[in-house]
Structure formats: C-alpha cells, structure tokens
Design brief:
The chain is α/β, with parallel strands linked by helices. The chain has a domain at 109-224 and 369-423: Rossmann fold (3-Layer(aba) Sandwich), CATH 3.40.50. It has helices at residues 18-22, 128-144, 166-176, 192-197, 209-212, 233-241, 255-270, 272-275, 295-303, 315-327, 343-348, 374-383, 390-409, 415-423, and strands at 3-5, 41-46, 56-60, 72-73, 77-78, 109-116, 152-160, 181-185, 202-204, 218-220, 245-251, 278-286, 308-312, 334-337, 357-359, 458-460, 462-466, 469-472, 480-483, 492-496.
Length: 497
Amino acid sequence: MRVRFGKIAPVALTLCLAAAACSNSGDSGSSTTEPSAATGATVTTASTTSPSTEATQVDATTASVDAESTPTTDGGAASPSTDAATTVPDSNRNENVPITGVPGVTDTEIGYAVIGTRAGNPLGTCILDCYLDGIKAYFAFRNSEGGIFGRELKVNQELDDELANNQVRSLDVISNNQSFGVFDATLLSSGWGDLDSAGIPTYTWGIQPADSANRPHIFPSAVLPCVDCTQHQVSYAVKLAGAKHVGVIGYGITENSKRCVTATADGVEKYSSDIGADVAYTNDNITFGLPNGIGPEVSAMRDAGVDFIATCIDLNGMKTLGDELQRQGMDNVTLYHPNTYDQQFVTDAGALFEGDFVGVGFLPFEAETGNSTLGEFLTWMDKAGKTPTELSMVGWINASVAFEGLLAAGPQFDRATVTDATNALTADTAGGLTRPINWSTGHTPYTNDTRPADQQGECTTMVRVKDGKFVTVAPAATPWMCWDSTEWSEPTFTAFK
C-alpha cells in the first residue's frame, strides 16, 4: 500500500533546493582533446554486463557551430554522434586585437565579476569561496598556457550577495560596468533576469532551472529544462540495492522539490516491474531544516515496509534522516542522496551513510581522468592549496564554458558575439566533465508531457559510499550512465572528452 502526504505549504521563499530537486536529471559538459583546444569530443562506451568489459570509442563534436548536426537528449544535451561537423578552431587563440569600449577588457586582461552566497547561507555549506576556488584554478590553468587573445583571465570583482541581495549585487555589476561577464553561485537568483536583460554573459550554478529558462545569456553548469521528466537514475539505484519498497520525500518550501518527489516516484512506478520494487510512501511537504526532526515520517516509512528512501532534500537533512533511521533500528535502509557529494561530510558521519547512493551530475573525482580535464582540475586545485569540492568543480565548469565561448567568438569579441558563439555550441562538455550540452536548445524548458522526441535520453553520474569513501557506480574509466530512451534498459557506461 502506498502512503501519500502532501499539503501545499504556503511558503514564498524559494531557497535553491533545486539542487536536491533536480540532480537526478542528467548534467552535462565536455571539451577538448588538448588542454588548449575547444574542439573534439570523444565518447567512450562500454557494455554494462561487466565492469571489465572492453570499452570502445566513437568521435563526436564538442563545439559544432551547426545546431542541426547533433541530435539532443534530455536537458538540451547532445547525443554522441559520429557525424562530421564544423568545430571551433583555436589557431587564433594567441592573436591580440585592440579592443575598445568593451567592459572589463583591456589590452592585457579580461575581467569577470563573481557573485555568490557566503553570509546568510542557511545550508551552512561552502558556496562563494569554494566556487571562487574553481574559477581561479581554471583561470590559472589557462593563463599558464598564455591566456586567450593575448590577455589573461581575471576575477576583478568578488561580491557576497548575503542570500537576499543577489539582485542588488547584479545591478551593481551592471551599473559599474567593470566586468566583461559574471559568474554566479547563489541560493536566490533574483538578479539573473537583470543580467540577461543587460546582455551580460553569465555562468551559473545550475540549480535554478526556472531562472535560467528562456534567458540566452544565462549558462548554467547543468541544463535542467525539465524538472518533472521521468528519469532512470533512482530506479537503477533501487535495483542495484535489491530494494522492494521505496519511500520518496522532499521539502514543501519549494515547488522544485515537490516536483522532484513526483518525478522520482513516477519513475519508480513506471519501471516497477523491471526493477522489482514499488513506491510505498511519498511526502512532499517536509519542513525545511527539519526543526522538529523527522521521527513521525520515518515511523510511517517503517510501517510501510520501506527499505530504500530517495530524497529531494539537502545534505543536512540527510544527516538528520540517517540519524533517525538508526535510532528506529532501520540501519538496513539504503538512501539516495541528491546533494551529498561531500567527502568530509560523509567521513564525519562515520558509518551512517555506508552503502548509500549519491548523485553527482559531473565527472566524479573518483573517476579515471581519461581524456577529460579532470586531471587539470585536480592539479590546479592542488597548486592553489585548495580542496576539490562540488562548488569548486561548478566554478571550473562555468569558467570552461566562458573560455570556450570566447574562443568560438574569435579575437575581435564583445559580449554579444561571445553569447552568440556560446549558443552555437551544440555538444559542449567542459573538457569531459559533463555530458554534452546543446546550447542552441538548452535554454528552452519543457515538461514530461511536452518532452521533444529527440530529447528522450539521459546521462548522469552516481557514486556509492563504500568503507566511508565514494566509489563510482559505473566503471571508473566510463563513469557516465546513459539511457537513449524513456523505456527501461540497463545503462550504457560512457566517458566524454
């Protein structure tokens, strides 16, 4: 018997728990074969029958300027393709052309503003500072190669939006006109509309799909145009866990979280006969922060026989849930975490999350670097004395997209040409760190009912906690799990570059 709860909470605050709400959608981004190139994407695929199965490679384009050359999958992601396509050359990367009247651009540098949440962060996690770590590491990497167009990439403004002042900080950037573009990692994206209207290329933490939609100057780290689309990821985790009865819970404070609960439960029900499990409990009205704990909800799930819980909540909520499960003797319940890719957090929790699944959405740190730029990310983070984190990877991915857009625009560039050139990239993978994004369609949202025929696929990454450490669910050499339709199948294991 399935138990449902779900009164609509009259809460206006839209805290960006979209990370929890959307991370079971595939995320994307891949880039180049050589560190200095913005061309060439390779997809490495392997059979799912055995982790040791020999992989094969097929070529695809990372930076095609032909929007029709590559079919797309869910989230504006481009499907792997062997078709030839025009790619962005970098032969003129070192050409310095005098430019005047372009904000943030001098003869020697291109300056960017970084806006993010530090003070007032209700999640208590590292956002702005960790995000800056990744951006600065990427800039250091590219500047060590000579920069681009004879100029170094620089952060020339660092702005804390203090949670509630994202629009104020965005308007500051617009009015002072000191920066060419903006990087933004915030929990309340109230200024993105202003930045888009001002025509400023803006690269963002991809957890706010509503504020990214239909805004051609906003380039999120993860394209999530369909919050309620049916996904395979959680169902696949349920099958791997051997679970039989699934509970799905989320916060009532945000519509994204509520839609996440619905989409997750619908996915498990859709594939119920294939995975041998059903949905026994749903609750999309959990109070944010769990101020009164989660005892009654856990008791209800215990009574419903739940042995797997998929959530649409933040990592602090997951800790409270894990503690309560332990208190009620439900240690054998496996959890799916959409927002707990934090090794220190998991380590500090001891054995609480052992055996759990964690959605990642980019190439996990535990994967083999292969032909991606993961190795460069780890190297340059280490050179800066910084610890790799989810937000630092988001910053690196955003900076990679900014670089690729500049390269595609050419040495005589401005905000408009960089925006246009970025939107012409049809299989952008940020150096193998995300699944390919087709920016020509990635800004346009759709629903499960209006999902285009050419966007039925899905690619994602996931890790599992083993002996207190994250390990990739798919083989480390091919860590992406891809499905080419909404029908049930085992995933194809893949790597991008």
